[in-house]
Write a structure and sequence with these properties.
heterodimer, A: 390 residues, alpha+beta, 2 domains, 9-stranded antiparallel sheet, 6-stranded mixed sheet, 8 helices, 18% helix, 32% strand, globular, B: 135 residues, Alpha-Beta Plaits, 4-stranded antiparallel sheet, two-stranded antiparallel ribbon, 20% helix, binds iron/sulfur cluster
């Protein structure tokens, strides 16, 4: 019954494709069996909306008269990179404001731009023969910019840790506030809706995959940073720890502030919630089997953040259904849970992507290049060493 | 007559009962305990509304501070800005009294104000700064 990418795209182009979200597909597969579901459905849409620190935007301001080669650049007092050509910059989401610290950062500037607000651009330059101006202080809007595109080096983590804290003081982490003595647990995945949990071996998701990025049509540009296919997997071949990641690109001008939200994690730093959705073609029963997995089957590993080392002790695994119930058990102790990744928003992403495909004939693209698979370069830590030790 | 809402933090070994007793007996105030979170051997928290003459309330506050109780003007309301909220659910992980929870089916945020003890944990935890206390 295998279907090809071309057949599915032809059905999308004719407005005939049957498209479902991963949750809906799981329900159909449970009722009618995986093989019937695989025959009926052409594309399954996924979605996630969680904090994704490794995000940011490339911006081009255009040239002033006289022109300037921008060196030190700030946008609403948030520093942006001056290490590119004269009026190009990369604004990183986690960069804190010089004035307001982590309460306002790069992500907030991007959200302000998306909301149509003017942003104060200030820059200094060395003053050269071709770029004589040494200072500029002006206001820009998203519309004014020549190019503005998100380039997020690491989004859509394939699974994530469940965080607890066995220590005796409260920890403020990128996984939220962790109360001492295992008083709470936080987790960060869309579970059954999560893009890479639905395609655990990166069969259909690769470089060139068309996807939903913060409300804009975008692409998977590359493997994400720290992409690591090697970790432990369950009997379905699905990772049970943080594993693969995606680098994505999309036009900021087409993005929607509903799917890009700046965030401040107290005593940790700035981040942003990004909505990412990837359409997955139901090519055959093999991929249908992983698309059909539900929160009751997908698991995550609990890590103790009370141990502040690179290798935190693992305290076992729990299912996403257990996490969503609001309580898990660790060594016989009942621990209340709270998510960091928004399920209602992840559902909105998957629904939105579904309507792109069914209403706007958004076609799907096979990978131009595969993401690194098991057996590729091992994931390496950073050693602290001196020059002599090399 | 004045009415004031006080947020009291007790050191771990301070018994809370005699405190309210003193407020009635020595100061002739009418204390109304709105919420209390007290566990043996741990720091306690109490939201108290006292009514009585203004100067007497001031004296009572001085007395409480002398007993090692930290006294702050208490929040009188808590606000959730739904425009800012992204329904991540992170606040539910720190709300011990269960005032903030997620609906089991829709995963939407449910806020039951009656269970709130004004501890501010959610205010600090919310990455969207969507929750504020007002005084
Ligand atoms: S932490 Fe803030 S943004 Fe997240 S659900 Fe609670 S109120 Fe909404
Ligand atoms: S202040 Fe926030 S965390 Fe504390 S009880 Fe009220 S709702 Fe819960």
């Amino acid at each position: 019954m295998a279907k090809s990418w071309e057949e599915i795209n032809a059905r999308i182009a004719n407005g005939e494709a049957v498209v479902m979200t991963a949750e809906e597909f799981g329900d159909i597969a449970a009722e009618q069996g995986v093989s019937t579901a695989a025959k009926q459905v052409d594309v399954v849409t996924t979605g996630t909306f969680g904090p994704m620190c490794s995000s940011g935007a490339f911006l081009n301001f255009g040239h002033s008269d006289p022109p300037i080669k921008m060196g030190e650049i700030t946008l609403n007092d948030v520093p942006a990179s001056g290490g590119l050509a004269a009026v190009d910059t990369y604004l990183g989401a986690t960069e804190p404001s010089n004035v307001r610290g982590i309460e306002y950062g790069g992500a907030h500037v991007i959200e302000d731009l998306l909301r149509g607000r003017a942003v104060r651009l200030r820059a200094t330059g060395p003053g050269t023969d071709c770029y004589p101006r040494t200072e500029i202080d002006t206001w820009v809007t998203l519309e004014d910019l020549n190019q503005a595109y998100l380039f997020n080096p690491r989004n859509a983590y394939q699974n994530y840790a469940v965080a607890v804290n066995s220590g005796d003081r409260t920890l403020y982490t990128y996984l939220g506030t962790l109360l001492p003595r295992l008083a709470n647990a936080t987790y960060c995945s869309a579970g059954a809706l999560s893009p890479l949990l639905n395609d655990p071996t990166y069969r259909t998701i690769g470089v060139g995959t068309r996807c939903f990025v913060a409300g804009a049509p975008g692409y998977v540009a590359w493997e994400g940073t720290q992409h690591n296919p090697h970790g432990d997997r369950d009997e379905h071949g699905v990772p049970i720890k943080p594993a693969g990641t995606l680098a994505v690109i999309a036009d900021l001008k087409q993005a929607d502030p509903e799917f890009f939200s700046a965030a401040t994690f107290t005593r940790y730093g700035v981040s942003c919630f990004v909505g990412i959705g990837v359409p997955i073609p139901v090519l055959d029963e093999e991929i249908a089997a992983t698309l059909a997995l539900t929160d009751a089957q997908l698991t995550a590993t609990v890590f103790d953040y009370g141990v502040q080392r690179r290798s935190r002790p693992a305290l076992g695994t729990v299912t996403y259904a257990q996490l969503r119930s609001g309580q898990i058990e660790i060594d016989g102790v009942k621990v209340p849970t709270g998510p960091i990744s928004s399920l209602p928003k992840a559902r909105r992403v998957a629904e939105e992507l579904k309507s792109w495909i069914t209403r706007h004939r958004f076609t799907i693209a096979p990978p131009l290049q595969q993401l690194p698979q098991v057996g590729a370069q091992a994931f390496k830590p950073l050693e602290v060493r001196t020059e002599e030790a090399i | 007559m004045a009415k004031r809402r006080l947020d009291l933090t007790f050191p771990p070994r301070q018994a809370t009962k005699p405190i309210t007793y003193h407020l009635v007996k020595d100061f002739d105030l009418t204390p109304n305990i709105l919420r209390a979170q007290i566990q043996p051997g741990q720091e306690g928290r109490m939201l108290l509304e006292v009514s009585g003459p203004r100067e007497v309330i001031d004296q009572a506050v001085e007395f409480l501070e002398g007993e090692g109780v930290a006294v702050h003007a208490a929040a009188s309301d808590i606000c959730l800005d739904e425009q800012q909220c992204v329904v991540c659910g992170l606040c539910t992980a720190v709300c011990r009294p269960g005032a903030l929870t997620l609906d089991q089916d829709s995963a939407e945020l449910v806020f039951d104000k009656d269970k709130c003890v004004y501890c501010e944990a959610c205010v600090v935890a919310c990455p969207r700064r969507a929750i504020t206390l007002t005084f």
